[in-house]
Amino acid sequence: MTASNQSPADPANAESNRAPSKPNHLAGEKSPYLIQHVRNPVDWYPWGEEAFAKARKENKPILLSIGYSTCHWCHVMERESFENKEIAELLSKNFVAIKVDREERPDVDKVYMTAYEAMYDEGGGWPLNMFLTPDLKPFAGGTYFPPEDKHGRPGFKRVLNGLVKTWNEKGPEVVKSANDIHASMSRTLLEAEVEKGAMGIKDLDLAAATLIKEADMKNGGWGQGPKFPQVSHLRFLLRQWQRTGNEDALKVVVLTCEKMMEGGIHDQLSGGFHRYAVDGVWLVPHFEKMLYDQAQLLDLYLDVWLVTGDRRFRKVAKDLSDYVLREMQDAQGGFYCAQDAQSEGKEGKFACWTMAQMKGVLEADELKLAVRWFGVTEKGNFLDHSDPAPLPNQNVLYVADPKWKLTASESKTLESAINKMKSARLERKPAATDDKILADWNGMMIQSLARAGRVLAEPRYLEAASKAHAFVKSKLWDGKTLYHRWRDGERDSTQQASSYLQMIAGSLSLYQTTLKPEYLEFAVVLAEGARKLFYDEKDGGFYIGTKRDDLVLRLKDDFDAAVPTASSVGAMQFLALAEITGRKDFREVVTKTLASNAQNMQQSPHTLAWMLCVADSDLGKHARLVIAGDENKEDFLTSRYRIYSPRLIVMGNTGAVDDFSRGLKEIEGKSAAYYCEGQTCQPPVGDPAALTKLLAPRR
Fold first, then answer.
1. Could you tell me if 214 and 186 lie in one domain?
2. Over 673-693, what HEC string results?
3. What region does 283 belong to: left with phi over 0, alpha with psi -120 to 50, or beta?
4. Is this prediction's pTM over 0.90?
5. What is the pLDDT of residue 210?
6. In the β-sheet with 649-651, what is the strand arrangement from edge to edge?
7. Which has the closest alpha carbon to 8: 168, 165, 148, 172?
8. How high is the pLDDT of residue 698?
9. Separation CA 653–CA 515 (nearest Å)
10. Which of 337, 495, 604, 680 is the most buried (most CB within 10 A)?
11. Is 222:216 a contact under the CB 8 Å cutoff?
12. Alpha-carbon distance 310 to 299, whole Å?
């Protein structure tokens, strides 16, 4: 099987037309994505007043190009167009060219991605190339452009020349059009009255039925490809199964988890998952590995391990955790953003294998077994059609025959082969690592790793989560403000809602897995800050960023895509905080946010699957497990995390907890566990084994 990417590149871009230039205005930036472009012949500027002032002074339109360091088509467009001297001269003469790392400025990215989708009535992607007036209002745009017209896509040179002509001849009309677009978006997105609604149990059932009906029951997931690991969908369905006993919901989850872990999207040697599969069977991925995917998939595989007891899922979770600690954690504790799809300019070169490479590493018996197990052929199963000189005979490793039951001897031989292949792969030039550290993605990884430490009985995962939390507090928190990005000894100057809200999630996960009050106290401080900076007091929900002069629109997100929206994350964490602290102001945030998103959940459940999980928790029993005393709290926590119970809040009886829980005491000097719903608790349990029985699923 040979898979191709979505947009073949133009091989006519001759090497002689690409030449490194002296550093442009990106010199000194910290983003690895911006640094990648620092020697382009394009006179790039970072997002900021210097570039805006130049555009105003010279009355030039702005090319805003947004991407991220591990973006495949960003690499392709850089190679084809931004390293092309002719295109660079055209850009530098007629435009002010600005580069933005979408991971550093999600608030900027949201504005212009929303504009693109509204202007062209289609989904966007990266690179996102938008053309703006000097006052930052969009009037044209696109995603990937080849340098010349190709495969139905307009060539970048033709697009640029056309826009230059239009700007020079009809500049005032262009500005008026941009103002009209901005006004229309403002009316639609900011000024329209939000219709409030209410979610009920029946809505959850209907949402689950829709997701089950649309699922691919042969290959798992949704759609025919490309396929993404839509973790929020799967975790909602797992909750639905537990609440209702709907076996179809469980089948979708288990099937998808099996197919993903058997496919090429799963790194069969080192653990962890690539970003997505370009096909419908999870075979050929885009090879980048994103921290946020590892965090969410770790939580998912922990869930499925607890539900099924299938040790294959446990192994996936453990291998994923080991990969993150080995390759994605800074020595000081923070977690890096991503690893690139490319090494030595070739996508998949680090991950893929040729038959010849395997023959050079393995003994005959190991080769025979590994070739069959991983589906390796002489021809290969991957050819990068975006590359003008693709590597031949490349194999993405996958589990070719999942039903093959290895004997003990075969398992030993395969293990030996895998170890040799791992060692050989370490000799290759690795894919680049985007080593910036983001507060929000770290919060996600902290949350799942802390839980993995308990569920998998691996204290080092919990220790790694605690170390990362300490890093974020020391580098990105100044006692009042949580900043978004740290890299190379410096933090940025922006605040993003996702940073606050995901770090609340990480802090609460550490609190619930350790019962250390300082984690709860930090979560409360962050929640108060997030409400002040980002919360929409009128309609509920959270804006992506703060009010800033460089944002022509201040928006919320309304789609739980690669990561859940700020509003979905915020509602879930404020719900947990309301249960733990008893604070009514935290509860109000949840109520308003659910009400303003109810219609979207009811009409398009696939768009807000994590918000559906919030509604599921809100509509279910508000259950708390209060552990009083320290003597054997570790044993009680171990018992709690043996059980899949996604709605259960774990808390202690000290610190910033509600008055009722503070009044629950130890029994005769020993720890006691209280299972409570509202203000009613069952008799205290003094035996951790009895707690496991108490928490066993009941429908």
1. no
2. EEEEECCEECCCECCHHHHHH
3. alpha
4. yes
5. 98
6. 649-651, 623-628, 672-677, 680-681
7. 148
8. 55
9. 9
10. 337
11. yes
12. 15
